[in-house]
Amino acid sequence: MSSFLSRRRVLATGAGAALGLGALGATAVPASALASSAATRSAGGQPEENRTLDELYRAALAEGGKLVIYAGGDTPDQQDGTKAGFLGRFPDIDLTLIVDYSKYHDVRVDNQFATGTLVPDVVQLQTLQDYSRWKAQGRLLNYKPAGFSKVYDGFKDPQGAWVGIQAVAFSFVYGVAAAGSEAPRTPLDLIDPKWKGKIASSYPHDDDAVLYLYALYAQKYGWDWVAALAAQDVRFARGANSPGDAVFAGEKAIGIGTAGSLAAPSSSPARFVVPDGHPFMAWGQPAGILKQARNPAAAKLYLNWALSPATQQASFNGWSVRSDIALPAGLKPIWEYPNANLDGFPPFMADRAAVERWKQTFALYFGEVKGAPTPGSLGLHPGA
């Protein structure tokens, strides 16, 4: 899962344990500790970009006008809105944007490094742990797009090796008509027997962000809650888009482990639920330019466009990674929701042994992951 989701679908949503404690508990490193205080120049001395988008566009065209992006996501068309927005502003760029699960893109890029066959210029993936590793390996270009100093500290590398370009949140959604007046208000309501057979979920042991959400639930409510949910005849599927799609299609009343927005109109057929005092999860989707990129000027253009006020104001869920963007009425910056668990997700992703224990335990409750990957099987060098 990740990146710029289907704006049409997500904007239509709105409203308002004993395993792996080291990954989720008191030893977690705050996300804010991973970044320096906002400033035009960091301790690394890298200045922010001061060229305009038009100047960067001319530089990208002079370079050859090509750009390849590997983006985390769930369906081949999930980034169509991003592509249309970028090309609407920069029509002469030859943009190739490949969507796949982040957990496949990252090892694909590693294999391309190993075989000297690197394809992408930009990687924007949910696998947060890869960025620290690639930085340590010298794989990422230190670069600060315009507006870098305005990005929330926990969503950027101090030296500019990567920067969050989108705030994403996962929780559960329900269909207004299907749920009626007894709609679920907290995760505790999801185990009410009246919802048996009426819930869809993405597999927590297939997507690490969904896994973190389920791990938070297990910690908060205990394994009895997990067992009760497993008895609800939940329809599990691959892809974090699948629960929301099932709700919007009227196939299920509730979808767990999917993105949504609190800024949807009252006419929305579905609601995204973020209840006070109950956990959900959010993160800043990072993007970085590979140091071996064939098209670094175009890559810089893309990051500057992604962080530009106009693009941030048009985010699919109303949230921005920048602190200076006016949000829709009723929204707070995502880092002001204490139950969003921003500080917990990076260390959770970094502890791969704990991640594997969570995955295998949830497989015991919910069964093994089944189904073909929803973006398709893309092989070693998509976009080449």
Average predicted local confidence, pLDDT: 91
Structural class: alpha/beta
Q: What's the domain count?
A: 2
Residue runs with pLDDT of under 50 for 5 or more positions? 1-43
Q: Give the SSE order as H and E letters.
A: HHHEHEHEHEHEHHEHEEEHHHH
Distance between the termini: 22 Å
Provide the CATH architecture of the largest domain.
Answer: 3-Layer(aba) Sandwich
Query: Using only CA atoms, what is the Rg?
Result: 20 Å
CATH class category label of the largest domain: Alpha Beta
Tell me the CATH topology of the largest domain. D-Maltodextrin-Binding Protein, domain 2
Q: Note the beta-strand portion.
A: 5-15%
Number of helices: 14
Helical residue percent band: 25-40%
Shape, please? globular
Q: What's the β-strand tally?
A: 9
* CATH superfamily heading of the largest domain: Periplasmic binding protein-like II
What is the makeup of the main sheet? 9 strands, mixed
Word description of this protein:
There is one protein chain. This protein starts with 6 loop residues before the first helix and ends in an 18-residue tail after the last helix. With 384 residues, it is an alpha/beta fold. Helix 3 runs antiparallel to helix 11 (296-307) and helix 8 packs across helix 9. The protein is globular and about 60 Å long. The model is unreliable at 1-43 (pLDDT under 50). Helices cover 32% and strands 15% of the residues. It is built from 14 helices and nine strands. It folds into two domains: 7-23 and 169-281 and 355-366, Periplasmic binding protein-like II (D-Maltodextrin-Binding Protein, domain 2); 30-167 and 283-328, Periplasmic binding protein-like II (D-Maltodextrin-Binding Protein, domain 2, 3-Layer(aba) Sandwich), CATH 3.40.190.10. Strands 1, 2, 3, 4, 5, 6, 7, 8 and 9 form a nine-stranded mixed β-sheet that branches. It has helices at 7-10, 21-24, 53-63, 80-89, 102-115, 128-136, 176-179, 208-221, 223-230, 242-248, 296-307, 309-313, 345-350, 352-366, and strands spanning 66-72, 94-100, 122-124, 163-175, 199-202, 235-237, 254-259, 270-273, 281-289.
